[in-house]
Amino acid sequence: MALVVKKFGGSSVATPEKMFAVAERVISDKGPQDQIVVVVSAMGDTTDELITLAKKITDKTYGREMDMLLSTGEQMSIALLAMAFTKLGHPAVSLTGFQAGIATSAAYNKAKITGIKPERVFQELAAGKIVVVAGFQGLAANGDITTLGRGGSDTTAVALAGALKADVCEIFTDVDGIYSADPRVEKKAKRMREVTYNEMLEMARLGAVVMQPRAVDMGKYFGVPIHVRSTFNREPGTIIREVYTMEEKEFIIRGVTHDPNVAKVAILGVPDVPGIAYKIFSALAKANVDVDMIVQSIRNADKNINDILFTIAKPELVIARGIIEKVTVDLGFQGVIFDENVAKVSVVGVGMFGSPGIAATMFGALADAGINIEVISTSEISISCLIQGDKVNEAVNAIHASFFKEDSAE
Q1: Cα–Cα nearest to 181, from 191, 195, 172
Q2: What are phi and psi for residue 220, nearest 5 degrees?
Q3: Rg for the chain (alpha carbons), in Å?
Q4: What are all long-range contacts of 24-30, with beta carbons under 8 Å and residues at least 24 apart?
Q5: Contact at 8 Å (CB) between 43 and 8?
Q6: In this structure, are residues 4 and 27 in contact, taking their beta carbons and an 8 Å threshold?
Q7: Could you count the other beta carbons within 10 Å of the beta carbon of residue 193?
Q8: 85 with 36: CB under 8 angstroms?
Q9: What are phi and psi of 232, to 5 degrees?
């Protein structure tokens, strides 16, 4: 007997026909004593359609009301899928995030799961039902419905698997695993059999949209193996776990990722005195704006003036712009520049630690392609470069060709 959590994305449940296909697959894969929890996203483009609908009412961001609106997409999916299971002869029940015991912070539109009490889920499983849970949502301590941000259903599934002590969490998607690069950009990308939590966490953080970083972090925290596989075939996908369990051929880089969804902020003429950086970034933190790739450079050593450059997610630019412009006026900075025509490209792999020449190979590939590097940041298992936005696909192709040769294995 196994307890398995299966997550299906919006494209997998986009139509009633696809919902029946999902239900048939879950039932056919289920062992006689298996207990199954299915986490689903909103149907197809429902979330985008709801956002568009809201924008027809107002351009302003109403966090609480937007969460109230967006959460309805998943609730529609779970009810319809539970009906499909029942029609096919297997008892099922749909549960909202709150009914499944998912508690979150009150950060609207990007709440974090703070705890799960899945007693209701256990009760329904014990009754022999397939439990269909709404992804992407939970309940804050103040009683408000919250959503977890883009890709939040992955986080729901993995966190629920951890709380239930599931044997595995299967993430079904429209690709058949984790690739060495986005196969839509790099046609020669290679599917990997396994990646570690740390590698996948870094790849997700740096733009690999197949998994949300918080979902991977949850998997690592609970020690739940995550199997990323295709909804549309039964081929094995990619297992994300703590360490490799099979003998891997020598490799250094596991993936090339890219993120076009970033914006660059450059604050000019910042006095080089203690506390200035704190005032800038604490103001952004209070507004829940995440920053990355922070660089401080000397503009005028004689006058003790620096420039501070960093990146943020493009959707947060409107909020960040107001904060930064106010700070610039209040603290007397010389000016600020916002640039949306940038993108981040990165290489990731635990094998790069202690392997000289990785940075040189990456920089050489970009140089040969005529692509200028604006900012560089590194970690123990990654190197990232900020480049011109319209060059990002070309950069991915050039870097991938440098690290993944035609005859190299997974």
Answers
A1: 191
A2: -65, -40
A3: 23
A4: 24/88, 25/231, 26/85, 26/130, 27/85, 27/88, 27/90, 27/130, 30/130
A5: no
A6: no
A7: 15
A8: no
A9: -100, 0
Query: Is residue 330 classed as helix, strand or coil in its secondary structure?
Result: helix
pTM listed for this prediction = 0.81
292-298 contacts: CB < 8 A, separation 24 or more? 292/262, 292/344, 292/377, 293/344, 293/375, 293/377, 293/384, 293/386, 295/375, 295/377, 298/272
The residue behind tokens 């991915």 is 396
SS3 372: coil
- Which residue matches tokens 């596989």? 229
What SS3 state is found at 286? helix
Quick check: 117 and 156 in contact, CB under 8 A? no
Residue 268 amino acid letter: L
C-alpha distances in Å from residue 300, one per residue of 117, 297, 327 = 56, 9, 21
Q: What is the pLDDT along the chain (410 residues), one digit of tens a residue?
A: 899 999 999 989 999 999 999 999 999 999 999 999 999 999 999 999 999 999 999 887 788 999 999 999 999 999 999 999 999 999 999 999 999 999 999 999 989 999 999 999 999 999 999 999 999 999 999 999 999 988 899 999 999 999 999 999 999 988 889 999 999 999 999 998 999 999 999 998 898 878 888 899 999 999 999 999 988 888 889 999 987 665 454 567 889 999 999 999 999 999 888 999 999 999 999 998 999 999 988 766 667 889 999 999 999 999 999 999 999 999 989 999 999 999 999 999 887 767 788 999 999 999 999 999 999 999 888 999 999 999 999 999 999 999 987 644 44
Take residue 271 and report the two structure tokens written for it.
């006095």
- Nearest Cα to 256, choosing from 409, 410, 407, 403? 403
